[in-house]
Amino acid sequence: MRALNFGDVVFLAKGALWTLALFFVSLVGGSVIGIALALMRTSPWRPLRWFALGYFRLIQGTPVLMQIFLIYFGTALLGFEFGALLSAGLALSINAGAFLGEIWASSIDSVGKGQSEAARVLGLRYGTTMWHIVIPQAMRVATPPTVGFLVQLVKGTAMASFVGFVELTRASQMINNATFQPFVIFGGVSLLYFAICWPLSLLSSRLEARLAKAYTR
Amino acid sequence: MDTPVLEMRQVAKRFGAFQALANVDLKVGRGERVIVCGPSGSGKSTLIRCIVGLEQHEHGTILFDGAPIDLRSRTSPIRSGQIGMVFQQFNLFPHLTVLQNCTIAPIKVRGSTRAEAERKARDLLARVGIEDQADKFPGQLSGGQQQRVAIARALCMQPRALLFDEPTSALDPEMVQEVLNVMVSLARDGMTMICVTHEMGFAREVADRIVFMDRGEIVEVAPPAAFFAAPKNERTRAFLSRIL
After folding, report:
1. Which residues of chain A neighbour B82 with C-beta distances below 8 Å?
2. Could you give the count of Cα atoms lying within 13 Å of B71 in the half-sphere of its Cβ?
3. How many domains does chain A have?
4. Confidence (pTM)
5. pLDDT by residue (tens digit) across B173-216?
6. Contact criterion met (CB below 8 Å) for B140 and B92
7. Position A89 in a domain
8. ipTM value for the complex
9. Which domain holds residue A60?
10. Contact A136/B95, CB-based, under 8 Å?
11. How far does Cα B109 stand from its chain's mean position?
């Protein structure tokens, strides 16, 4: 047993940076997968819609930890050394894609059918209609649940500690094992997570206000 | 008669067990104004929606300028915006200004420059009497103004024919006339029009022919004078006695 020192604080800060890194990897990967799935789910082509729905149900209905394990140990077994960051990033991306995809698909659905019909009759193509007409309106609906999910995603990065990735949660456990100061360490780490999530919520309110402004007199 | 701008040959469409259109034949010549009326569920809207490809008909052919419409082709009259449509619910794009509503299709589909599209849009907004609202959002306008924007938006594509699906049915009564006035002036300028409406005064004023539909069939086609004075079919008489 030893006392907490400055080195521990640096170690935690590094852990927090890895948490952030993992979050961004998952955010980017999850967004790419989510956009693709949302477009599939709302496409006129039935097999694509079913594929997206199957993906949502399967990934949402299985634990993220098992997904991380499957990718981390599974790829290793197949001879790929992905490492903890990449495995966890990939698994969290696949997982986030399922949630973001479903949120975004229902946001796209919430834009009335009349909008795409009007666009179609004007001769606008699918891509133009989506990008200029449907998605800008869907974003307004999508912002609150998207941010709500991203906050979950930040906290979900802690799952990566199970495959030995030293992010914020793992770092705090290691320091606590050496110093046994749970209130200070875990309280402080909770505040660090809060410091990451709070700006996200703020950003959400800002974005909502900006998107809403365009509609009202 | 020249080649009709629009022609429907034996067009049929069903929704499940419901026969929405039953072997519809209709020709609309250049500059002709055709009013379509009939009880609700008679297939009036479906007729228009089939022409612009928002519904797929199962049988028959729809021709534009004598050529069958192929929705898969990039040059099809719908995908290039040559047939305009005005909806009951306006369907303006709420996140775009009135001016942007009118310029997006000319810019994206026709490749107009922004300046050119905006000049044209302002002209047409002036024509429907709302040039001073160009920079507002649709939500800031009254229903009648919104529908006039929708007409201007369709006109910006310089359509060869303009279809109206109950354009005044969603409007408060005091706003109906301002929209009808715009439509009358379009008719006077020789626009080819097919209009689904219950406004019989308007029909009498502008129609070259009135088409009466019931249960997916075209029951009777006649010029307005004959249509109102001496309807031939029993179903037409019953309908007119209910609404006049």
Report:
1. 123
2. 13
3. 1
4. 0.88
5. 999 999 999 999 999 999 999 999 999 999 999 999 999 999 99
6. no
7. yes
8. 0.93
9. 6-215
10. yes
11. 20
